[in-house]
Amino acid sequence: AAAAEEPISPPVQVRHTQLLINGKFVDAASGKTFPTLDPRTGEEIARVAEGDAEDINRAVAAARKAFDEGPWPRMTAYERSRILLRFADLIDKHNDEIAALETWDNGKPYEQAAQIEVPMVARLMRYYAGWVDKIHGLVVPADGPHHVQVLYEPIGVAGQIIPWNFPLLMFAWKVGPALACGNTVVLKTAEQTPLSALYVAKLMHEAGLPDGVLNIVSGFGPTAGAALASHMDVDKVAFTGSTDTGKIIMELSARSNLKPVTLELGGKSPFIIMDDADVDHAVELAHFALFFNQGQCCCAGSRTFVHERVYEEFVEKSKARAERRVVGDPFRKGVEQGPQIDDEQFNKILGYIKSGVESQANLVTGGARLGDKGYYIKPTIFSDVQDGMKIAQEEIFGPVQSILKFNDLNEVIKRANASRYGLAAGVFTNNLNTANTLTRALKAGTVWVNCFDIFDAAIPFGGYKMSGIGREKGVDSLKGYLQTKAVVTPIKDAAW
Ligand code: ADP
User: Which of 79, 407, 439, 485 has its CA 20 to 30 A from that of 212?
Assistant: First the structure.
């Protein structure tokens, strides 16, 4: 792991720091602002308007009006689709600037943002643009002389609350399907990463989005977030974040107007490596599954189960791989890992590392911060991890790989499933029967076989158990943003 060097100047300016309500950038009603910080240094990038309940009220009123009276749900599907397509083109046009803003605010490698994530946002928008004019109803048979139609209508005003680990991708997963279905939106960004959503929301207006259809409120969870989830005039809430906060969101929804919820929550995903595996390939995939995005992925392969026959070799090669991982300023070329998002996460991760050592897991490599500035953590591996240890049960959300040994397929299925989470799983084997057994036995919303973190626009993503409710991406994501209406008409003089 390279040492963190002096930070490079980001090749981008901050253009927008106000709230975006009813198509206009405005200050918070309270006039308050909060700083957003550069994870490379902990220094302030900019001060951003701090929205609270009153701003949520203003934003919801705008979204309500845009839904009830505005052109958006009444436009032809083709017109709405064209706006989303134009937005995708503008994302492409400003790709590098958007990626730089994302890296600056979040700390993720610029190459990852510019080559994978921002292009994925454009891809997702084109995918949803493709759905707009293909959302249609059914005619269903009735027992009597009735003509029965099933209509799929937008729900209304969607409240959306997103996290900081993939600020723009989460924006796209939420806003794409909501707008494709004809809803209007109030989106609250994470307090750590407010910048990129403001930038692209402006582009969406340039693409022709009518005022009030998409409103962006920066601010904190217990104030702005809670006001959105409990608002009586919000018809649906979609949330991505921790399981604990997900429970709060569901409770706030229930206590207010019983708005339906979509939740994408935490995980402790198993990555299972069988003894027939090509060890070098398995090491690389398991490394990627855990360390990608500084380990800040809800679906991270954070329990690496390795068959005892390849265990020693696997641990040794994983150590070498982790020690080769290039950690440093995310704007630098070739950097694989930047800083963690903020001091809270940084300290939490170091706390888990301490807990791993205290519970007598074997610290193979890493285990400390890197450098003395910013939130860099050395790629860390524990081997001989036991199921009951805290590091094997709780979501660490950092660059800490836990390796566990197993010797039997049925045993590993039981252990992999013995978690309150069920977001994703990875399976590494060349044996078709083993793969088929595992893919059916694992209780997870996604099972990646001989791959990991494949996120095409059309693949549904979401959790079993306490990893969530509902699915995002793919056709499944549309269900969360549509109401079903049955229309029944008598057929007079049925002649057949
Ligand atoms: P993390 O711990 O990773 O920051 P959270 O689940 O707390 O994850 O945050 C995800 C999103 O949820 C953020 O936008 C945050 O502001 C928001 N949030 C946090 N607490 C609440 C809350 N009580 N009500 C509504 N939103 C919240």
Answer: 485
